[in-house]
Amino acid sequence: MTKRSVRGLALPLACISLFGLARSAGAQESIHSVSINMKAVAQATNTGGDRTAAKSTVNDASIFEACVGQAPTKTQTLDLDFLDCTDLSNNLVNAVDGPNFDIVLGGIGAFMFEMDRATFKSSGGDTVQKSAQIPVLVSIECVAPDASITLSGIANITFKPFGGTFCPETVKVKLTGFGMTTANPAFLANDGSSAHSKRVVDQENM
Amino acid sequence: MRVATAIGVALWVAASSASAGTTRFHAISLSAKLENQVSQGVDFKIDRSSESAKDVVQACTGTPTKTQGLYLQESCGFPGLENNHVVIFDTETMSVTPIGSLELDVDFALTHTKGGPTQLLSASMPFHAELKCDSAIDLVLDGVIDMAFEPNATVCLSTFKAHFTGTNVQGTAFVVAPGSALSGKKPLVFF
């Protein structure tokens, strides 16, 4: 594990990150708590031998457990770290610990925004960025133990000014897709799945 | 396509069964919620509109007739349903203009059967679609589709419905927002 100010890739437990870091000096960074809830439907077979659907919920806690190898403690969770507010695609989903997510356990995914299809609301001309709707692909990938989740949707993002630019304040996205974890073999993430994030702390990188 | 066009008359029936050599078209109902970025004075705003199957047909044909519609042309079989086409189909002239397909991710298909695993009742799976006709329509959609099958051994679609989001890259970029959906009726079957 590592302090956020250092943010190396020393990973704890069984978590193996497939996602790298891309922090720029002087960039405004916005760190969010993120909750993910998937309406998972997996293939099952009933006692009569018929194929049926087994419904379950896959959420941020189960993703954390799938990637880190143990259930999160009360201080552990997932975050969504916008490493550079001027480049929303430069972000990571991390397994973290601490009140301000100071300890990064490992990067497990990213929100891949399709910026060339984004629509924005602004005021004061284009000088005040208020909100945006952006197609997004959410990718969670970790190995040993395993999680592989691919979700798509339209992210609704609100912004607040910070350090001369605008950082995401909230991200809300309804998602569909598919995935698997060690506890949940291949499942469909059905309509009604979603992810929400809310800004916890902003910082300017040195 | 094997249809009875030799004498200019198509024989079609509402499907209750299917066999080899038939061609099946499901009329598609579409409700895509479009959200577009527009300028209002010096500010950017979001303009909301919707796009129906009729709008797609109009955009693709220019001047649609009453007998033209948006259809899913199906190949029976599972797997095998992946070989489908989204088309503008004219039930009078029998002309078929493909504008894309529903790419089904059968690796993540969930099925319902009865009598053990043999008789397939329904399936749900992720899908990806790219629908394009000239420069008028350029939709990229992702979602989950629910399919109901006819009770026969060939595994032919009865009806389907899907929820999706996506983008339309026609002109100014805009998004296809959550709440968008499509559904397919029981097929017209041509022998």
Descriptive report:
The complex is a heterodimer of chains A (206) and B (191). Chain A is mainly beta and 206 residues long. Chain A has one helix spanning 60-68; strands spanning 2-3, 16-17, 28-45, 51-59, 76-82, 91-97, 103-113, 119-123, 128-143, 147-162, 165-181, 187-204. Chain A has one domain (2-22, 29-199). An eight-stranded antiparallel β-barrel of chain A has the order 3-5-6-7-9-10-11-12. Chain B has one domain (12-190). Chain B has one helix spanning 53-61, and strands at residues 12-14, 23-40, 43-52, 68-74, 85-90, 96-100, 102-104, 110-114, 119-133, 137-149, 157-168, 174-184, 188-190. In chain B, strand 5 (85-90) and strand 6 form a beta hairpin. The longest helix of chain B has 9 residues, at 53-61. Chain B is globular and about 65 Å long. At the A-B interface, strand 3, strand 4, strand 8, strand 9 and strand 10 of A face strand 2, strand 3, strand 8, strand 9 and strand 10 of B.
Key features of this structure:
heterodimer; A: 206 residues; mainly beta; eight-stranded antiparallel barrel; 12 strands; 62% strand; B: 191 residues; 1 helix; globular; disordered N terminus
